[in-house]
Amino acid sequence: MEPPNDLNITAAALEKAADWSRDLLGRGKEVEDNALKACMEAAEAPCADWSCQLQDEILNLAYDRCGEVTGEYAKTFYLGTKLMTPEKQRAIWAIYVWCRRTDELVDGPNASRVTPKALERWDERLQSVFAGEPYDVLDAALSHTLSEFPISIQPFRDMVDGMRMDLVKSRYKNFDELYEYCYRVAGTVALMTVPVMGIDENFEGDKEKVYHAALSLGLANQLTNILRDVGEDVTRGRIYLPVDDLKRYGIQEEEVVKGLVDPATGKVDDRWKEFMKFQIARARDIFKESEKGINALHVDARWPVWSALVVYREILDAIEANDYDNFTKRAYVP
Question: What is the dihedral of CA 252, 256, 257, 259, to 10 degrees?
């Protein structure tokens, strides 16, 4: 998103953020692989110590609030977490709430006032959470989760960097560039939650493949979000569709901004339909890849993941049912 002119962002801060973005573009796979390695190493290490002086009653209320937020914004997934052990479900809620609060920095009601400096402060606050020094009770829930499950800080850092991308980048030249963004804002969630969900104790295969399958689910979910929200994202000045894919179907950026639906007839441009068919097929292929790892998860974690996969994949069906109109219609699953 191009920052509005009225933001209190200095030219130097924007240039620093832009330099950061240029340095990382094209390194999406490398960033993801480094985080995966860090998470697998953390999974074999002891959990963090819980030294925060917080009454159990207050901590329980914090977890309860995390559950309420998860239930409000991710109802199907929340219902799935109820099949987990109490320890696992509240840990997932705490992670979800941190992710949502992070996303709200650039997409929430105060997004227009968020600066690169604000994201630096959020990064520092994350460091404090992992150091056992939470800023508020919701942070305390996550900090306590780290004492119960072996979670790496790296995917959390990477997600904050995904928010930085939204401050300085509103177009993606190709799928490789988009892949990095999708990892940072969605694949990271997979790496955060696999240690909580756990891998089945009877699984004898390569655990790295389980993590890769989880990353595929994050990627497929985010691609689905992007395809569903094209019209909404355009109003924010963002186009998350690969530019080279658009050109391949003879579509110009200006046409996406205007919307490829005839306002008089409601007819969707045939070029857009073909473009969307290609994008949906790619997302479905990635969903298929993600299926390979679900049954390797601990048995009490499988249903929540399957439910999330099924619901998100059905959004693609809903886009088709809307005749590929994601400019004036929003695809949703009842």
Answer: 130
Q: Which residues pair with 199 in a beta bridge?
A: 297
Q: Are 53 and 273 in contact (CB under 8 A)?
A: no
Helix or strand run (H / E) with residue 157: helix 154-168
As a whole number, the mean pLDDT across the chain is 91
Instruction: List C-alpha distances in Å: 179 to 17, 78, 183, 285, 333.
Output: 19, 27, 6, 15, 25
**pLDDT tens track for 5-48:** 333 344 444 444 444 444 455 577 899 999 999 999 999 999 98
Model confidence, pTM: 0.90
In 4-115, alpha helices (H): 11-24, 28-43, 56-73, 75-81, 86-107
- In the chain, the amino acid numbered 196 is V
**60-119 per-position pLDDT tens digit:** 999 999 999 999 998 888 988 998 999 999 999 999 999 999 999 998 888 888 899 999
The predicted-structure confidence for 110-163, as pLDDT tens digits, reads as follows: 888 889 999 999 999 999 999 999 999 999 999 999 999 999 999 999 999 999
Which two structure tokens, joined as six digits, stand for 201? Answer: 């104790």
Tokens of residue 330, six digits: 């929003």
Query: What 3 state SS string does 106-145 have?
Result: HHCCCHHHCCHHHHHHHHHHHHHHHCCCCCCHHHHHHHHH
Which contacts (CB < 8 Å, 24+ apart) does range 17-26 have?
17/116, 17/164, 17/167, 17/168, 18/168, 20/161, 20/164, 20/168, 21/164, 21/165, 21/168, 21/169, 24/161, 24/180, 25/177, 25/180, 26/176, 26/177, 26/180
Distance in angstroms (rounded) separating the CA atoms of residues 160 and 83 = 30
The radius of gyration computed from the CA coordinates of the chain, to the nearest angstrom, equals 20
Contact 280, 221 (CB under 8 A): no
